[in-house]
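User: Second chain of the day. Same drill as before.
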Amino acid sequence: MLVITRKTNEEIIIGDNIVLKVISNGNGRVKLGIEAPKSVRIARGEIAFREELIAEAEVRELATA
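Assistant: Same format as last time:
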């Protein structure tokens, strides 16, 4: 894992076409803006994890049917 310190309005560029920008920070929170092609899926970690659990449950259900 790469850990980088950024201030408000500073950016991190990932690859050729993804930009992560710090919009604001304070009160223990960071607001990020993400610019990426529509083909790149962006999801909060807890949402992606929940979707993965649901997909695994569906696979198990199909296997037992």
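The radius of gyration is 17 Å.

User: Great, on to the next one.
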